[in-house]
Design goal:
The protein contains 17 helices and 15 strands. By secondary structure, the chain is α/β, with parallel strands linked by helices. The chain has three domains: about 140 residues, Rossmann fold (3-Layer(aba) Sandwich), CATH 3.40.50.2300; about 110 residues, PAS domain (Beta-Lactamase); about 180 residues, Reverse transcriptase/Diguanylate cyclase domain (Alpha-Beta Plaits, 2-Layer Sandwich), CATH 3.30.70.
């Protein structure tokens, strides 16, 4: 029988991150722990408390009990010890994954687990955290929840696009069709009034005359080389094309047709049906753009960021060239909202977005990672060059004359130097980002005073040695 620990663990102000950057991240978390050691669960709960989670937790002793509890309860995350190694462990984990559905699974491993946990992780776990580094658990959970939300957003976008395509098909079933007929050589013979109006001409004679000079309606050999049955030439499969109206504007169309024959069975040409899809395709283009764009800042969103990272990892695998990613956090956004209002806070996000756009090359991608967090993907850029870009961003933020003054913290990671997957790359950059914020928070005095431009505009990235020092300092201060 599962035991319930209803823990409303509210983060205090002695956490590892400054209040100004974490208060707005506090969120309830419904967690299920599968572990035999109460001390380990207590350590996890304490780390989640420091990570600004408000936790309501249940715990069970084994994965069988976990599957039973999942039948009647829902959780944001399941944190479990590994089921061991070998084929039986994989089967156990696969059965658990079926019960979990979209709920992320975090494995608490030890340094002794080695390759076995890597193989288990590939068979379904969302992530794993070594017990020796239990402080990384809040970051791993945030990343798992973010990835789950991204998958949900992508599914919603696919549904929206499918709905748009269904609307298009429904509209195409009963349109005012344009039709025309051509001979075996593709010469235009006849055309109906709907297509004449669609192309912006006043009469059949005007269109036929213009077609002889401008080829308003291209010959089928230009448009349908792969669509014509080269043996029997009986039909043309539906195909998208773009023509020009009389006034030069683009006309996006969908064409289909069939072959026609004379009385002796000889091929005599084609009869073509033309449907104007300009407006529909424009709407679909807008939908695709909205699905990958942040509505406030105009930068890329989560979906865009992950697609770009996947593309860069693939390109790096082909070219052998590294790339870097910057993670940026707008310092003190909650204080700006509280003091000046949310309109000024939104404007602050847009100010930073404009600076990122100004600093990006045409091949770079700036995206809003969520809330006050941003990301910049720098293709074919080593870590040292990425640090220079980060410094330039910090300098431009510092020089921005608009009120209130802003500052940013920046974390940087390089592929494949620091990580070899999207998740671990973001994790590496996230670690440097929050190590930086931790150092900056200890430099500010007092924390209740709104940060000055000078205090908040220090260079916001750190190297591996500084990250290690910050981690030791954090562990010491948290006792």
């Amino acid at each position: 029988m599962a035991n319930s620990l209803q823990n409303n663990l509210r983060g205090d102000q002695s956490g590892v991150r400054p209040e100004s950057s974490t208060a707005h991240r506090s969120r309830p978390l419904r967690a299920l722990f599968v572990h035999r050691e109460a001390d380990t669960i207590d350590s996890c709960l304490q780390e989640l408390k420091r990570g600004q989670f408000i936790v309501s937790a249940d715990f069970v002793l084994n994965l069988s009990q976990c599957r039973e509890l999942l039948q009647t309860n829902s959780y944001d995350v399941v944190v479990a010890e590994p089921p061991g190694s070998g084929r039986k462990a994989m089967q156990t984990l696969q059965l658990l994954q079926q019960s979990l559905g979209e709920t992320p699974l975090i494995l608490l491993t030890t340094s002794k687990d080695g390759d076995s946990i890597t193989q288990l992780n590939g068979d379904g776990a969302a992530d794993y955290v070594q017990r020796e580094h239990i402080g990384q658990l809040p970051i791993a959970i945030r990343r798992a929840l973010s990835n789950r939300k991204l998958r949900a957003d992508l599914e919603e976008a696919r549904k929206a696009l499918s709905h748009s395509q269904s609307l298009y098909r429904a509209l195409a079933d009963n349109p005012a069709y344009g039709t025309y007929r051509c001979d075996a050589e593709g010469i235009l013979l006849d055309i109906n009034q709907a297509l004449i109006a669609m192309l912006g001409y006043a009469s059949r004679e005007e269109l036929l005359a213009a077609n002889q000079v401008l080829e308003v309606i291209p010959k089928l050999s230009h448009e349908f080389a792969s669509g014509i049955d080269s043996v029997e030439r009986r039909r043309i499969d539906p195909m998208e094309a773009e023509w020009k109206r009389k006034d030069g504007t683009a006309l996006r169309i969908r064409l289909s047709g069939r072959g026609v024959y004379d009385d002796h069975g000889n091929f005599a040409g084609h009869e073509i049906i033309v449907v104007d899809t300009t407006e529909q395709q424009t709407l679909e283009d807008q939908l695709r753009h909205q699905a990958s764009t942040d509505s406030l800042t105009g930068l890329g969103n989560h979906r865009c960021l992950f697609e770009v990272l996947q593309a860069e990892i693939s390109r790096s695998g082909r070219s052998g060239r590294e790339f870097s990613i910057l993670l940026l956090d707008l310092d003190g956004l909650k204080k700006i909202n509280d003091r000046f209002g949310h309109a000024v806070g939104s404007r602050a996000l847009c100010r930073l977005a404009q600076i990122l756009t100004d600093c990006c090359r045409s091949i770079d991608t700036a995206a809003r990672h969520g809330g006050d967090e941003f990301a910049v993907v720098l293709p074919e850029t080593p870590k040292a060059a990425g640090a220079s870009v980060a410094q330039r961003i910090c300098d431009l933020v510092k020089k921005d004359a608009e009120h209130p003054p802003l500052s940013v913290s920046v974390g940087i990671a390089s592929y494949p130097q620091d990580a070899d997957t999207i998740g671990t790359l973001l994790h590496a950059a996230d670690k440097t980002l929050y190590a930086t914020k931790f150092k900056k928070s200890h430099a500010l005095t007092p924390p209740s005073v709104f940060p000055s431009q000078q205090a908040d505009s220090q260079p916001a990235f750190t190297d591996g040695a500084n990250r290690a020092n910050a981690k030791r300092e954090r562990e010491g201060s948290n006792g």
